[in-house]
């Protein structure tokens, strides 16, 4: 454990989360949904009593610094009740320092300080916006802001000594006209799919459509200000026409065309805003966070089509990552320490204990459990199964904090057969057929398959797939011949790297299909019991929980074309 104060960061918004740091070491960072099993679970009263404290014993240690962020008006009204709950559940050191900061400032501290840059421009583009409150930092030209206004985007220039806000886009919620990039994509998503959290579906559907079919105008961009034209608002209200309905082929073209048109409008507007930010700062480096930072197609264009030479997007750019931002703020601004933590990986969940894995397996009499003492034996067996077109779940080490499965809570498959993707979507994930699955690839071999010349460890960029490579790995090549890839270098996860090499030795392909270890409408698995339950209720063929390999007593159906 490193020296320094014990710091707790708390995010009370959608995708509620907490982050515990000891000095610059992240003890753990975890989303509430992983514990409650409710996707995008908001922060609420009694979270510490019912969700966090029962599962996270490290919370019993005295806390030296506590920083929180809120974005919900209703929750801000409950501050006194939150205070009482924490006083009852947590322990605080005698001189504990505490503060609440704005939602956007928490985003800034989650992306810049843990980035590899000493200087950078910072762009925060959030979803539906967050209230301007007493916690919101001031910036030039805006000494007082009415309380009914919400900040939807904010822009900064930063170095290791100072962060300066150079502009924001605000929205008066009393006005009927909605504004902002995040709000636009939210409305686009709502027009095509019901429910929340479906932005990834729109991004996956967009390449199936024609972005010119509807004749819609671009978004109105003026510096950092983005407005939604009236024609767009008319179209987005017509959900009877554009709502995706599974199996309704007559409506598919309209759903896909709207997704394609909206995705292009969004990308072009983000590029304009980023070019404005570069003109204001002259920075070589860009840090990008907020929920829109998960749009990997846009992210790749930021790298290729703006003056920024390097772009850093953390593995948890959405609201979940703000708890880490709160903790980093507490460490640096209240604790007076330099932050040495960097986003080198996203394996920030609590370390699972081997005894918990063995206890869960001891209750699995319905499964065949095999102990493989040598790691080489286990990843060799996994590679054998994958090359035989079996589907294997992997529960390994600390869980990923962000929404991408990066090889610790993953479902793996053979990328050489397109029907493997279709089978996983239909039989395991029980989701839409057009959803892409991602490749994980050895870093030193990535350029042979993808138009990429940099590491991409967090699966945040959709890179073009070379045409010849697309024929080799069709299961991870999307319809527009791109892939949201994860690279694994020599300093990255050793088990995942060894597995890729074992698969390459058997097939000549250093790429494996990778998707998140969860079933339909559930969060990624967190505990050994959850992993076993998800495995039981899907037709996957094996589950690797090092040093164990778990199989079913009755072999599941073979992977094959989905009719």
- Cα radius of gyration in angstroms: 23 Å
Largest sheet: 8 strands, mixed
Helix content: 25-40%
User: How does CATH name the architecture of the largest domain?
Assistant: Alpha-Beta Complex
> Would you report the number of β strands?
22
In CATH terms, the superfamily of the largest domain is Carbamoyltransferase, C-terminal domain
Please give the CATH class of the largest domain: Alpha Beta
Shape summary: globular
Pfam family, one: Carbam_trans_N
GO molecular function: transferase activity
Family: Belongs to the NodU/CmcH family.
Organism: Nitrosospira multiformis
List keywords for this structure.
Nucleotidyltransferase, domain 5; single chain; DHBP synthase; 19 helices; 33% helix; five-stranded mixed β-sheet; globular; 563 residues
Walk me through the structure.
Helix 10 runs parallel beside helix 11 and helix 14 (375-387) crosses helix 18. Strand 2 and strand 3 form a beta hairpin. The chain is globular. It folds into three domains: 6-105 and 317-334, Nucleotidyltransferase, domain 5 (2-Layer Sandwich), CATH 3.30.420; 117-313, ATPase, nucleotide binding domain (Nucleotidyltransferase, domain 5), CATH 3.30.420.40; 354-552, DHBP synthase, CATH 3.90.870. Strands 13-22-21-14-15-20-16-19 form an eight-stranded mixed β-sheet, with helices on both faces. A five-stranded mixed β-sheet has the order 3-2-1-4-5. It is of the alpha/beta class and 563 residues long. The model has no long low-confidence stretch (mean pLDDT 94). It contains 19 helices and 22 strands. This is Carbamoyltransferase. Residues 101-328 form the Carbamoyltransferase domain. GO terms for molecular function: transferase activity. InterPro entries: Carbam_trans_C, Carbam_trans_C_sf, Carbtransf_dom, NodU/CmcH_Carbamoyltrnsfr. Keywords: Transferase.
